[in-house]
Design brief:
It is built from 15 helices and 17 strands. By secondary structure, the protein is an alpha/beta fold. It is globular and about 75 Å long.
């Protein structure tokens, strides 16, 4: 009877924390697969290398044993015809096809619209140019899975439109064109515009001065907006919310549930409960003491949608308990709080610190590739000549290896003990 009661508590809490769809999501249903090579193609918004970096960070930390290769291919000012990085066929050959991609995302439109009311000529140029781009991908990267991204917004939430109807309406129209093209060419489609507009609306209601900083020039998103874009793309790719989930019955000294984690036998010494746990994923390393990240978690539902790491402990006597992981104090919690479950992703844990280290290495890798691509655009010799190895390719591969080495799951010792009575 007691076991049934514990199981019911676990199921109810997990279903409250995670929607049924996300509960069912795992590596099998996630869009990206082991061995994939992903290229993010776009203009200056993609060239900021933020939303794509966050997608890489999520993928590496959530699936550390699933090697996926990521390349940013954004160039400022680009249109469907190309731009400062060269005409479209040159851009695709050098920045996309050279990597032999299995997945390509494309976000264009901000420059194609000309920052004015759209016309038939503008629309036709955009559509025909995009069709050429997609046909080229099908020809030169056959079998590559394509995701078209509805362009991020022109900010008309914190500032008024510059002409009747506004430029963001043009971007939404282009997103509709993208969706039609996705249907025609068998691609996936994710619209990045509405999630950012929603964030802008929440920020505007909370603090108009802060809201203006989310798209400070009305075009190029800052961190909060890029995370909203990354979340939208990941959700479109069926990304699971769950990092791991563990439930412990302290009275019986046993594990009652473990998802995406392995737990060694639980030990109980009087009122102290200990166990060793290896989580197969890492949380995203958000820290509410960082003001930008605090606002990010306030204006989005990132935590609930992508960052759940519940720990439930039942069978404790009433009172306060301190949780340590690897002898590091995580926090003090009541028996009731632990029974309901705490989200470890909210706390300063060794797992979050490991995830932060992974994020630094990914940032280095993204920056190295951006510099490498810029050198190729400017035709600077990187050694990549016939019969000569490209030394920067080797450096990028070295950095990628270091990312996955850092992300590898590690065992951690958990301990729950009563908080000592204060004199």
């Amino acid at each position: 009877m007691q076991m049934k009661k514990v199981c019911c508590v676990v199921v109810l809490v997990l279903c409250w924390l995670v929607s049924p769809l996300l509960c069912a999501a795992d590596a099998q249903s996630f869009y990206l697969k082991s061995g994939d090579t992903v290229v993010f193609y776009g203009d200056s918004i993609t060239a900021q290398n933020l939303y794509n970096q966050w997608v890489e960070l999520y993928t590496v930390t959530r699936f550390p044993s699933m090697r996926v290769h990521f390349y940013g291919a954004g160039v400022g000012g680009d249109r469907v015809s190309g731009g400062s990085g060269g005409p479209i066929d040159e851009r695709l050959a050098r920045d996309v096809f050279a990597h032999k991609p299995t997945v390509v995302t494309v976000m264009l439109g901000m420059n194609d619209g000309g920052y004015r009311t759209t016309t038939d000529d503008i629309q036709n140029t955009y559509t025909k140019g995009f069709e050429h781009l997609l046909e080229s991908i099908h020809t030169n990267a056959p079998g590559a899975r394509i995701t078209l991204l509805g362009p991020s917004p022109f900010d008309e939430v914190t500032r008024p439109a510059e002409f009747p109807g506004g430029y963001n309406a043009v971007m939404l129209h282009f997103a509709d064109l993208d969706q039609d093209l996705a249907r025609k060419y068998g691609a996936a489609f994710v619209n990045l515009n509405p999630p950012v507009v929603q964030v802008l609306g929440k920020a505007q209601a909370a603090d108009p001065a802060i809201a203006k900083l989310i798209l400070p020039d009305r075009v190029h998103p800052e961190v909060i907006a890029h995370w909203a874009m990354a979340e939208a793309l990941l959700k479109g790719w069926n990304a699971p919310a769950l990092v791991s989930s563990v439930a412990i019955d302290a009275r019986a000294a046993k594990v009652t549930d473990a998802q995406n984690a392995t737990v060694e036998p639980v030990e109980r010494d009087k009122d102290v409960v200990r166990w060793t746990e290896t989580e197969k994923s890492l949380p995203l390393a958000f820290n509410r003491k960082n003001e930008t990240e605090r606002l990010l978690l306030e204006f989005t539902d990132l935590e609930k949608q992508l960052n759940l790491e519940p720990l439930l402990v039942t069978g404790l006597a009433a009172g306060q308990y301190q949780l340590t992981i690897d002898d590091k104090l995580v926090g003090a919690f009541s028996a009731d709080e632990l029974t309901r479950g705490i989200n470890l992703a909210d706390y300063d844990t060794p797992m979050r610190a490991q995830s932060q280290r992974v994020s630094w290495k990914i940032s280095d890798h993204v920056e190295a590739h951006y510099i490498h691509m810029q050198m190729q655009i400017k035709k600077v010799d990187t050694g990549g000549q016939p019969g000569k190895p490209d030394v920067l390719d080797g450096f990028e591969n070295f950095l990628e290896d270091s990312i996955y080495d850092e992300a590898a799951p590690k065992p951690h010792v958990f301990s729950l003990s009563p908080v000592s009575a204060q004199p």
